[in-house]
Amino acid sequence: MELLDFYCQCENVLFMGNKILIDIQFKRNHLLQNGFDLTMSLYCGIACRRKSFWCFRLLSTYVTKTRYLFELKEDDDACKKAQQTGAFYLFHSLAPLLQKSGHQYQAPRHSLLELERLLAKFGQDTQRIEDSVLIGCSEQHEARFALDLVLNSSSSINASLQKSEMETELKGSFTKLRKALFQLNTKDASLLTTAQALLRWHDAHQFCSRSGQPTKKNMAGSKRVCPSNKIIYYPQMAPVVITLVSDGTRCLLARQSSFPKGMYSALAGFCDIGESMEEAVRREVAEEVGLEVETLQYSASQHWPFPNSSLMIACHATVKPGQTEIQVNLKELEAAGWFSHDEVATALRKNNPYTQQQNGTFWLPPKLAIAHQLIKEWVEKPSCSPLPA
Ligand SMILES: NC(=O)C1=CN([C@@H]2O[C@H](COP(=O)(O)OP(=O)(O)OC[C@H]3O[C@@H](n4cnc5c(N)ncnc54)[C@H](O)[C@@H]3O)[C@@H](O)[C@H]2O)C=CC1
């Protein structure tokens, strides 16, 4: 049974204005222990009469949050209102603001009032708040926004304070996202990644490609519209397949010359237009290492912000044991090879990019990259049996 779709039987139902008084007899009490917030759910319940009893469709905290975010994306007034109680993450040229407390880093949030004060101090118009983008909300529906203090700003920014002066005022430092991701907890890292991707997209889509006119962002930043021809532009991600090829006992890892010294990863490549994920995997593997994929299994996906937004679609693939001779495409890769289970398991265990880069030994992508997850999955379950490609 779908967790979010269960119904409960009510013995008495009274409506008082927009509040509902109920006496419920849960058929499946155990579901309440599975993360449901009863109070929140009941206020959001949709009542309907079913035969002889009332049914409530209970909406989980997750669903109400998702619906709230949807409303903010669709309704500029609601979004503007949400800014009053919301919180803002700050960026400078796409680098998020981080603060250090003890040994930990965190991404500070600012209220609308604080932001207005800071903008005034930095010589910027409070109108700039309209350049912020919606990136999520808390369980209590406190919306989260991100604003880049210099991107998209008018010429008045020239008169504003320098980055270092801003950092002093903000008691933090604007840190490159690649570095910031290693210093933050997963929740903040994910929010900042989304924020940077959206801010970058807006910066790069200021004009309509048909009319050449400036486009206008909606309040949430979920789209831009050309006022002259009404064309709507939506933020986009490029789909990329990333495949860990195995011959049953070994896995294939490769490196590009642009990778840090000693790092090997799974094979990755952008999907061509019109291709399915399966077709893209077969083509990329054939193009890069001259092998033909026999079976294929989807594993997971990840939004990857570098250098532009990609949707990484991770798969395990196998080739026939007798057809494993690699022919590296040197236009795409510097090297590729088969690695034994032991070699990969050892590399995963002592995966310290810094020391391994120093002594030039073989190492794997860091934990936050889906390539790492794919390799770890293979090490833990090398005999996963994919479907025919
Ligand atoms: N999160 C992860 O674990 C990993 C992520 N990646 C990401 O996957 C993406 C693709 O990986 P690679 O092929 O190694 O990258 P790459 O940057 O070497 O790109 C290969 C080629 O694809 C073409 N290209 C660039 N952008 C494109 C686009 N938006 N659409 C279509 N073609 C495009 C260009 O000709 C480029 O030379 C990169 O963004 C990379 O950062 C790659 C490996 C692991």
UniProtKB/TrEMBL annotation:
The UniProt record lists the keyword Membrane: no
Protein name: NAD(P)H pyrophosphatase NUDT13, mitochondrial
Domain of life: Eukaryota
EC number: 3.6.1.22
Pfam families the UniProt entry points to: NUDIX, NUDIX-like, Zn_ribbon_NUD
Gene (UniProt): NUDT13
Keywords recorded for this protein, A-Z: Hydrolase, Magnesium, Manganese, Metal-binding, Mitochondrion, NAD, NADP, Transit peptide
Catalytic reaction equation(s): NADH + H2O = reduced beta-nicotinamide D-ribonucleotide + AMP + 2 H(+); NAD(+) + H2O = beta-nicotinamide D-ribonucleotide + AMP + 2 H(+); NADPH + H2O = reduced beta-nicotinamide D-ribonucleotide + adenosine 2',5'-bisphosphate + 2 H(+)
GO molecular function, one term: pyrophosphatase activity
